[in-house]
Amino acid sequence: MSRNHEQIRTQVLAIVKRLAPEIDPARIIPDKPLRTQIDLDSMDWLNVLASIHEYMGVDIPERDYGKVVTLDGIVAYLAERLPE
Amino acid sequence: MRPLLIRKSPADSPSLAPGSAFSWPQVGHDLGLSANGHLNIAALAVDRHAHSARADRTAFRFLGADGNTRSVSYRELAELTDRFGNALTSLGVVRGDCIFVLCDRVCALYVAVLGALKVGAVVSPLFQSFGPEPIRNRIAQAAGKVLVTSSSLYQRRVASLRAELPSLEHVLLIDDSGAGGIADTLDLATLLRDAPNTPALVATAAEDPALLHFTSGTTGLPKGALHVHGAVLTHYASARSALDLRPDDVFWCTADPGWVTGTSYGIIAPLVLGATSIVDEADFDPLRWIHILESERVNVWYTAPTAIRLLMKAGPELFAGHRFPDLRFIASVGEALNPEAVCWGLEAFGRPIHDNWWQSETGGIMIANTAALDIKPGSMGRPLPGVVAHVVRHLEGEPVTLIETPDTVGELALETGWPSMFRGYLGQPARYRDCFAGKLYLTGDLVRRDADGYYWFVGRSDDVIKSSGHLIGAFEVESALMEHPAVAEAGVIGKPDVLAGEVIKAFVVVKHDIAADEDLRLELLAHARRRLGAAVAPKEIAFVPALPHTRSGKIMRRLLKAKELGLPEGDCSTLA
After folding, report:
1. DSSP B130-180
2. Is A43 in contact with B500 (Cβ distance < 8 A)?
3. Would the CB atoms of A65 and B313 count as touching at under 8 Å?
4. How far apart are CA B193 and CA B201, in angstroms?
5. Which residues on chain B are in Cβ contact (under 8 Å) with A41?
6. Structural domain range at position A18
7. Chain-centroid distance, C-alpha B27
């Protein structure tokens, strides 16, 4: 994993943790759907996406929701759209 | 421009026989009820078709989150539910025992609900986003004997509660694969394999208890609204009248069975009709949903305002290249659907969206925009056949009186006698009695009725919060917050939200000498989410120096809400 990926992962987890502070990031399996592992309802999930937009400057449109199901998916999606 | 009236033509409802008189006994006759008084929801929903020429028709089509699909015919469903019912019997479950289900929308959940109904057990579905406290409270109230769940949910939410739930004799795991790795649980697959597939049905009657749906009130803990097997008459009749559902249809109810819509219309009603039900195991995903509507050739779609608003937000480009020639009827429930959303259906699908109204206590749809009825966007429609509604003046200490003048706001009341009316709040007879005035059930919802007989939702007559279509009681949330050692007092309101209707916001007063800082805010948020789960925990927490109280010491939640909205605090009348 590149340094860029590692930074993105840390940022995403910080965003999730601010909205759902009870989670333990170490227990997240990165290639399994995120929302089935941690307790995020649909409003939490929209807030995660809004925060990614706000803090990382990447808008994830509805048509791409299928690409950001797992933590790995989110990181890869953002890595493609963020400067190296 | 948005129309004020969406006109319907006879072509919109060709299935309706003109002038056919409605009566509940006639509905029973249509369902082939026998004269001996025996009536069982699962027998009508499953066995009746399994022993007919429609036995091989698909009852459920499960769409896995991983892309796999599984179709289950009525014949297979009858065998699976017989096995499940017999497995329950072998575990010592008898009529009237309460069975809870808590899992994803997978086949095992549907088999468990219907199999338990077959043997006369009372079924109570729980929502997956409930945390340990709502789960413990509900199972304890109903003295639940069996819980059907997944190993992941069991370990995260239930295992630590077992000692507090002495009534809970058996936990059946849907995904243990015979491993037996988790203490004090049983593997459902093994139980089903070992259980006989002989008929499990017991001879229940119309007034025997069948379903228990927990709902929230202004005060106290959630109330368990008890429903009987006879409710199936409403499920059947309303699916035809309010949803225009027909036996050859593919039907998709997007509600989770953890909520009453997902049970009455996600499990029971389409099966009783003999239709095919789509079950999507994945979370909401706009493109996935469009794909399902199109490729599964859904004819009737029953969904919710929050989902509709999210699809609207996604924009028309999401629909580009998709066609929905099979989609005949779209309905919505959960909260009043805004007129823009009703009309958006015309643009996106070429069909308007039909709002309807009911609640846990009514067991089924009561007031609806039907296929034949011209739509006034923003209205919940008119009472269904067999339902008699009134607008009443209901003031503390005064007799309840009918309001006949059109467009006058009052409480929505229903004449008792429809089959799916709840028969009690579990263990709370006084609260049940308080819901009635003579022959009228008082719904707690404020409405007005226009001169054409259309009903319009105005608000709640109490402080109950409605978030994403689900009722949440402020008391349950406040109690959990106050268990935290730093909290002196908490007041909880529904804060208006464009997508969810309302989101839960908590105002917290901390104890003397405690620093109300960001660390504590996150700690309280984590505490509430751990206890209550994402669906019930607050989305926002704000610290305040004090909360407003009535003279009797009750928190004035309406005043908190007025402050939040920047309204004049003296006049809270608009907050109803």
Report:
1. --HHHHHHHHHHHT--EEEE-HHHIIIIIGGGGGG-TT--EEEETT-TT--
2. yes
3. no
4. 18
5. 129, 468, 534-535
6. 3-81
7. 24
- B24-448 is classed in which CATH architecture? 3-Layer(aba) Sandwich (3.40)
CATH hierarchy code of domain B470-575: 3.30.300.30
Gap between the Cα atoms of B269 and B211, Å rounded: 14
Q: What is the pTM of this model?
A: 0.89
Q: Into how many domains does chain A fold?
A: 1
What's A51's domain CATH number?
A: 1.10.1200.10
Nearest to B314 among A39, A43, A62 (CB): A62
Q: Is B539 on the interface with A (CB under 8 A)?
A: yes
Domain boundaries, chain B: 24-448, 470-575
B260-276 burial code (b ≥16 CB/10 A, e <16): bbbbbbbbbbbbbbbbb
Beta strand B98-102 pairing with B122-125? parallel
| Per-position DSSP letters for B299-342, written without gaps between them | SEEEE-HHHHHHHHHH-GGGGTT---TT--EEEE-SSPPPHHHH
**Shortest alpha-carbon distance between residue B538 and chain A (Å):** 11
Q: How many CB atoms lie within 10 A of CB B416?
A: 12
Taking only the tens place, the pLDDT of each residue in B448-507 is: 999 999 999 988 887 788 888 888 888 889 989 998 999 999 999 999 998 888 999 999
pLDDT at B575 over 70: no
Q: How many CB pairs under 8 A join A and B?
A: 70
Instruction: Enumerate the residues of chain A whose CB falls inside 8 A of the CB of residue B525.
Output: 20-22
